[in-house]
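Problem 12. The chain below contains 300 residues. Write out its predicted structure in token notation.
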Amino acid sequence: MYAQQAVLPILTTGINAEAAGLGDTGIGSAQAAFASFWNPAGIADDRFPASRQHHDGSRRIDASHELGIAHHIWVGRTRTYGLAGRAKVGTRSGVAAFLIASDAGGEDTPELGGTAGAQYLTTGLTIARRFGRLQLGATGKFVAQRISSNGSNGFAGDVGVIFDAFDHGVRLGASLLHVGTLSEVPAFVTDLPTTIRAGVAIYPFKVVAVEDGFPLLDLMVAVELEQITSTNDSRLHVAASGVVLETIVARVGYVTNDALRGLTLGLGLSFDAFEFDYAIVPFSDGFGGPGHVLTLSYGW
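Solution.
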């Protein structure tokens, strides 16, 4: 099970702090530069180019492009780095690209099945288009790994859909991720963790000032189901967030049936063209930790 376990961290553990603080939910709510990691359809979001005000209520300036960087401090010496960007194409389409690399730091870690000297890389391109309230997207990506002196690589694809109901009040999403193959390596399992995810993000109400209608508090709750077909593992992800004064975002999430994670917490701060997000992920006993995820994004 070496390679199967080794591939999982980079493909099934989220890369951005926003989603990490929400228990790795992102099928219906992800809209930033790393949205294609969760659901390629999120790249076609119609509210991104116009105002960069996210469905969770956080405030951003007018922008047609966005660039984001991410950093994981994870189990043992494992470190993960991400770079992603997206841009508007026409009035209904969007494109995105991403690069994610991870290094186990040359020591044994429980999450990687005791393997040492492991490195992982995935990079891809996404295209998405909006048809009224329906968004569709697809991603093609290259995946590579090296464990000690053994390496394998291959290609995979993702597809996703989002339906926006009740004037952004409810967003239904589904995605099929990591469909592809890696080159075979003797004594290693190189099956990709093909994953089916479906969920809903609900924005129940907003509290505004009586005098001028300025948003004081904006809430979001999300529920997602995840099925990893290669291992037949199922997980439930639940989350909630609240945006205060369109600037500060507090997040909480929970992941079930995960040996590493359970409760997750996060904070976000928007300031003009920048948004900074942080998540802390307490690990289960025996894994050390906690884990820290940081993301910085910029729009122009």
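Discussion. The chain has four helices and 15 strands. Students who got a different answer should revisit the alignment rule from Section 12.3.
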